[in-house]
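Re-running alpha-L-fucosidase to confirm reproducibility after the cluster update. Everything else is unchanged from the original entry.
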Amino acid sequence: LMLLFLQLATANVNAQNNRSAWFEDARFGMFIHWGLYSAAEGIWKGENLRYANNYAEWIRYRNRISKEEYGALAQRFVWDSIDPEQWVLLAKQAGMKYIIITSKHHDGVALWDTQVGNYSLPKLSGSGRDVIKEMADACRKHGMKLGFYYSHWIDWEHPYAWDHNQELTGHVTDEQFNQYWQEKALPQLRELLTNYGDIAMMWFDMWIPYQHTIFKKEQLEQAVALIRELQPNCLINSRLGLPTDAKYVDFETLGDNQFGSSYKQHPWETPGTIAHSWGYNGQEKEWKSTGQLFESLISNVALNGGFTLNIGPRADGTVPYESISRLHDLGAWLQQYGESVYGNTGVRLGSIQHDWGKITRTTDDNVVYLHVFNWPLDRLLRVTGIKSKPRKVELLTGSTPRALSFTQQGPLLHIQVPQQQPDPYVSVVRMTYDQIDLEPRI
Ligand code: H79
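Result of re-run:
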């Protein structure tokens, strides 16, 4: 009974529509954290206070910066070199299929030319540049899906929004919070969903179910109604805070940098960073390796999930070299081996793990890909858990695939591989079946 309940609980996320079909095929997207905090570069008046998560985009909260002083960061933007089209091209080169940009992060600053208040990047900087509009145009030009991050819960600019301990705003009553919701959040969402063409998704960021927050269910339902009315194809992520029901939520967002641990039937993704901070930090020390990013992406696809990988451009629009080089490597690999990622899902193998890497398959079930992170020194790749016998097994090399010989006994497949792995990051073995018999295992 418990098992049945679990299955029902996860199966209903995407039951009512196929809005999210493109998202399930995409598997890989770009997150962009860019805002006033990018200009602070993780340092405030010579100090980099260690506080809680230590994220550069939390600098206003961490350093208790006043609204006016924080707003003055807008003067540090270098508009000549800011070109959102370059971000879109970088995402495209990296093999990413969608971009989510912080239209308004926790600091409450709108990146677009909002008519709701004056606390926006175009107004504070005096540039008049609407970067969200430029993003929307560039995405349309290059066939890239565009989504908006919108911080609906936390807003350190608005006196009546949520800031955890109300250390910046003082105590907020339900009535006051509702005033923020009706007068700022909903009207801004309306602008974003009206003035920028097709929006592929709205990405909210609240990591607590609404019952444990200041939100009333009806308030969040107003946001859903607005999105469904203005953009019927727009996806909504689970961090809105409402239950994961198809009425409200189109895909699940796991924790920040939290990767899948079991196969999920409904669409899901992990938002992840290359660095530690999401926003630009001039003293960033924690860069993930390219190999680690490959494993994160492929491991998620093998569990039917996706990966939204973040960049934090500087206030002059440039992207740190560390991010660019990793994205280039990921993109070059996907260019060659993308058939094993896009439109792929996983093979349910229960608790079976392979020490060499991860398995994906095309959704019609007839092609299975072995992603080898650790090349076997004894030149024997051992695959357990698939009973069907492949028609052919090939090593993808980037040019002509190379046939591999194999033996099979029951669910145990032994593939002979050459001594040299063809790819320095992830080598791919393609197994083609006439008809594959995959036992669904939970
Ligand atoms: O936008 C990125 C982050 O800025 C945002 N989500 C990603 C996508 C995010 N950062 N932190 N969190 C979400 C959760 C952090 C919660 C806490 Fe705290 C911060 C726990 C401890 C420090 C705030 C302050 C809540 C408790 C104390």
